[in-house]
Design a protein that fits this description.
single chain; mainly alpha; about 0% strand; flat; disordered N terminus
Length: about 160
């Protein structure tokens, strides 16, 4: 049995979890959209169970997997109507709805502009330049932020500065 087969067996076992009657009532309340913002105390009252049952249920991996799977199924059922609403509103001229649709399609992203208007002294050593550039970029990982050929910079350091 490969690692993937073993993982699928574990997932199947977790999703085949059979909740108790109280856990089923709890799931029903938890998965009802109008109860989303209610307190644990209110959820337990609606499910006719104690807070102990609530916390014990969420300690069980099987219950957690079942809750996640059923929550995901609810979201999946809601995606089409939500997308239809967004498209309808975008077609009516709503900029915000159109923007979200384009973002989801990967056709739009916020444009950001970085303006770096700071003095930069060419007479700094290579390490001082690295530190200053990292400071300007807001990162200590300069080599991953932008590709810089520091060997070429170090060679140029030996030559007098000239503007070609």
């Amino acid at each position: 049995m490969s690692g993937n087969d073993n993982m699928m067996t574990v997932i199947q076992n977790l999703t085949e979890y059979q909740p108790t009657e109280k856990e089923s009532q709890l799931l029903e309340v938890l998965l009802t959209p109008e109860h989303r913002m209610k307190s644990i105390t209110d959820i337990c009252k609606l499910a006719c169970c104690s807070r102990v049952i609530y916390y014990e249920a969420f300690k069980k991996p099987g219950f957690q997997a079942l809750y996640k799977a059923q929550s995901r199924a609810l979201v999946d059922q809601s995606v089409a109507p939500v997308l239809n609403t967004f498209v309808r509103e975008a077609l009516r001229g709503s900029f915000q709805h159109g923007k979200v649709i384009l973002e989801m399609a990967g056709l739009y992203s916020e444009k950001s502009q970085v303006d770096v208007n700071m003095d930069f002294n060419i007479n700094l050593t290579v390490d001082e330049r690295r530190s200053r550039i990292a400071q300007l970029l807001g990162t200590k990982q300069l080599d991953t932020a932008i590709p810089v050929d520091f060997a070429a910079v170090e060679d140029k350091e030996k030559e007098p500065f000239s503007s070609d």
